[in-house]
Structure to design on (290 residues):
């Protein structure tokens, strides 16, 4: 789950997702946007229970599901032929076909879909980018006599204000140099990453699969997956700050996957259920569980 300001996104919805959301304590409130990387069952099979819960228990009237054309065809079969075969869905389900490019944007961030190579067409990764912003220089504002309250908010929005003594303060008088926003890249199952280097460049956090170890690189190639070493090499070449690995084969434990990746890219985590990462311009920091 990706949380940003008022937005909440669920990326993929495998079997058991509903139960894990309940167990996590995050809940379903405002969780009305689902981004699907591709249509394999381990990434969509939990949609039936998830959508049922939203409609019956959360008083939500709509959910938007985004995915490639083939992915949404499979989702449609699952939801409207199996889960709700008589068209009695408890809420409106909007299936949004995505193409490479911007999915949504506002004045704070942009969400972009980009194609990835896995098994079959219509596989996507997702890029979350904050817009650059100018920090408010509180000390300078105080020196200029800008009071606390709506005047400061106006200046942050880029609007000039006139003070009680008649002086006009321009935004550039109290705003610092523009700072780049955070950049988060999420890639699901993927077999080739060479073309993804520009997308991942300088990301503050990259989530990507590491299904195999390098000793099983041939298996990874056959099944369209990555090794931990390949994922770490991408992170290193793209100057990523923090690498977070997911989708591990059950033949390994997380420790050996982490060791292989860290030998190439030291700032690597192997994600576990319910891990929580705070992503800033300094990278991703793992937040301790309560």
């Amino acid at each position: 789950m990706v949380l940003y300001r008022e937005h909440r996104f669920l990326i993929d919805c495998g079997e058991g997702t509903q139960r894990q959301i309940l167990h996590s304590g995050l809940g379903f409130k405002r969780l009305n946007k689902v981004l699907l990387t591709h249509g394999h069952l381990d990434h969509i099979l939990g949609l039936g229970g998830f959508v049922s819960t939203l409609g019956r228990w959360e008083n939500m009237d709509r959910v938007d599901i985004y995915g490639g054309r083939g992915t949404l065809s499979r989702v449609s079969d699952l939801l409207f032929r199996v889960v709700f075969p008589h068209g009695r869905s408890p809420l409106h389900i909007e299936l949004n076909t995505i193409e490479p490019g911007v999915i949504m944007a506002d004045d704070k961030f942009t969400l972009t879909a980009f194609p990835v190579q896995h098994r079959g067409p219509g596989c996507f990764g997702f890029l979350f980018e904050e817009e650059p912003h100018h920090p408010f220089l509180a000390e300078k504002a105080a020196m200029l006599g800008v009071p606390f309250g709506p005047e400061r908010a106006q200046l942050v929005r880029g609007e000039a204000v006139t003070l009680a003594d008649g002086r006009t303060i321009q935004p550039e008088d109290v705003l610092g140099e523009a700072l780049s926003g955070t950049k988060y890249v999420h890639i699901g199952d993927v077999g080739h990453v060479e073309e993804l280097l520009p997308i991942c460049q300088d990301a503050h956090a990259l989530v990507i699969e590491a299904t195999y170890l390098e000793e099983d690189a041939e298996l990874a190639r056959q099944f369209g997956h990555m090794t931990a070493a390949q994922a770490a090499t991408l992170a290193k070449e793209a100057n990523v700050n923090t690498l977070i690995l997911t989708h591990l084969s059950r033949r390994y434990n997380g420790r050996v996957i982490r060791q292989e990746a860290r030998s190439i890219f030291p700032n690597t985590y192997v994600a576990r259920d319910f891990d929580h990462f705070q992503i800033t311009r300094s990278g991703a920091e793992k937040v301790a569980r309560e």
Observations:
- The chain has a mean pLDDT of 91.
